[in-house]
Specification:
elongated; mainly alpha; DNA-binding
Chain lengths: 175, 175, 175, 175
DNA sequence: GATGAATGAGTATTCATTCAT
DNA sequence: AATGAATGAATACTCATTCAT
């Protein structure tokens, strides 16, 4: 009953995160999703196809979230928003982040996702607008630092997320 | 000739990084190391044992590198050193970083390595010594940001490493 | 549109010949015939049932072709006709021949088809009528040789079919 | 104990003949050969590799058998020998013949084996030496007919092999 | 220490077939 | 008559690991 394809995707995301993509067998996915193993391959060409689908969907949601503040004109509001974006990991996208984090290190050459390029462009534009001469460097620093923090949050090594966010916003004088 | 065990370890590290731990077969390791597959299991109980050994050895080297600045009393020198530590990835430890990055996201519960605890303690101590009231938060911010930057360096998303380091040192007024 | 059953049969025959019976999936048949996979099993109980149907239909056509000369009384005309029959593979029966050739070697015990028995009986009768003492042997020689030639034609190892036919007819003095 | 690789090859040949290449699973081969399924793939890259090996080995034996009469100068002896070659299927090569017969019809484009080319060249040379103007045609007729007869023998449709051979030799006046 | 043949459990994927619609 | 989602068993092949030598 209902959408088995979605069920497969949900279960797969969960398992990929827990055990890693390679360590998760299609048999396990099928068992946990209560479907036959064959059904996975009717809905997705490949195990890799299933993975890519998961990543693509997450990427789309990411772009949607970013769209909310990307055209903000007030630099202070923009920077505050982007800090929120990295600190407040929505339940929905939590899986995507973890999956991405896991896969990023396997392929030798890393290719930024679309949303990452969009974000970097926007941050650079804002910093240039604020008169920074080294706006690219400043953008890089902000984004890499925020990414590091987000990884810390995902990993659980950041104890007080709210306070840390306040600290970062303070450094950028946007609170 | 000579130390086949070391050859196995070297090759394994390289392959684990390139293709991922799970996607690297012991057969491939043996082939690339020009030894028999059986020999791997004479030197290491397991494929997992080989992995753990690699991580442990890297961790030891990490502690050794940290030891160079951990007891530094001058806060400025200390902070400058820790920034150097994260920015200047020694050729030798590059593999360890990549391997760690890859594996960090598979286990659900993340356990900090010994060197990570040592480092955090030291940073907190220094910040407290400098009179920061929220020294733990400041330590967290520095470490997560630097980790993010290091990941950025590893994956190639930081264009000008030297300039970025100068920028960070400038922010902490240690240059 | 119209006769989907026939469409399935046509496509199946083609694919069985090209790729072999076992290497042809019902899915592929369905795709190429532009019908759903399920429909195959409405019209034929089995994949094997489909195969048997194809063979049976070919066998019937074979009998029909043979009927044209089987009751010929003049031995010269009869022999000439049977040589024509083996040399001039009608477009329609080409698929049947190929399919038969392919399957003949899989079952350990080979059972001659009805048309093969009819043919052998007729040839033996004619040779006996011509006064051959070893008419069975002569019939066997003619039929096995012609079968060999037909296989040669099918696989393309006979370069000049027309000339070879003339040669054979000459040997039997029926030209 | 002993040569498991040879055991695998023997069993595989037998099964391929009985049930057909595609209908024979590697699992079955392993079971019948009393080895693990994995071992097949240590000795042969592929199931197809195993098949090719079988065919290649048979082809080599074929060339060896042909070598016995290929340089015969007396046309009568040569023709007599080649007829023997097709009529007296050695126990050892029986499997090869059946396997070849089975596979010949699956691939669309048929490529003659080395021994087939050697044989055809030799027969043409002999017929030319005998003064036949259409020596190529005569060679083709002999070879295709003999192939047909051999298939008949393999299939069991030739009742008295010895007598048929005498009949053929008589036609070519080599007895 | 070192080999390489051997294994058995496991892998992703495909198969013919069924069945509710 | 016709579909297409769904299945479970089977497929070729790979894996980490063992063990006699």
């Amino acid at each position: 009953m209902g959408d088995r394809r979605a069920k497969i995707a949900d279960v797969a995301l969960l398992l990929f995160i827990e055990r890693g993509y390679h360590a998760t067998s299609t048999r396990l996915i099928a068992q946990e999703a209560c479907v036959s193993e064959g059904l996975i391959f009717r809905h997705y060409t490949n195990k890799e196809g299933l993975l890519k689908d998961l990543l693509a969907e997450g990427g789309q949601q990411m772009i949607f979230e970013i769209a909310g503040f990307i055209s903000e004109h007030d630099p202070k509001v923009f920077i505050s928003s982007i800090i929120d974006f990295f600190f407040d990991v929505s339940e929905e996208l939590l899986g995507y982040w973890r999956l991405k984090a896991q896969l990023e290190w396997i392929k030798t050459v890393w290719e930024p996702e679309e949303w990452e390029r969009i974000l970097r462009d926007a941050v650079e534009r804002v910093f240039r607008g604020m008169g920074y001469s080294k706006y690219e460097l400043e953008a890089g620093l902000l984004l890499e630092s925020l990414t590091g923090i987000r990884y810390g949050i995902l990993r659980g090594s950041v104890e007080d997320v709210r306070e840390l966010k306040a600290l970062v916003k303070g450094k950028y004088k946007v609170i």
